[in-house]
TrEMBL record:
GO terms for molecular function: metal ion binding. Residues 1-63 form the HMA domain. Keywords: Metal-binding. This is Copper-binding protein. It comes from the Bacteria. Pfam families: HMA (PF00403). SUPFAM superfamilies: HMA, heavy metal-associated domain.
Amino acid sequence: MLEFQVENMSCGSCANVISKAIKTIDPNVQVSVDVVSQTVRVKSGRSEKELANLIEECGYPVSKSTVV
């Protein structure tokens, strides 16, 4: 599982935008978004770089990512 630290994510709408975007490229993904800690956890067959780029394309900068 990958965990992304995501900046400027401040509400449920932000979480929905990111979740929906990730689910469009991987329908079988497990995604968990925590707005308070500004983290997105993803279990997917997609690469870390691809997921980070997708989150950033949604308008939310990824400051770091780790394997958890």
